[in-house]
């Protein structure tokens, strides 16, 4: 069993998932629609 070694769930996911796949999901599901004020 692999422990998380203090990493958040999101950090663990990003270690596993390529950035290109993550960006594709953000685009597909409009994941950044509420982040406009933070840019």
From TrEMBL:
Domain annotation DUF4372: ranges: 6-33
Highest taxon of source: Bacteria
Classification via Pfam families: DUF4372
Record protein name field: DUF4372 domain-containing protein
Organism: Candidatus Dechloromonas phosphorivorans
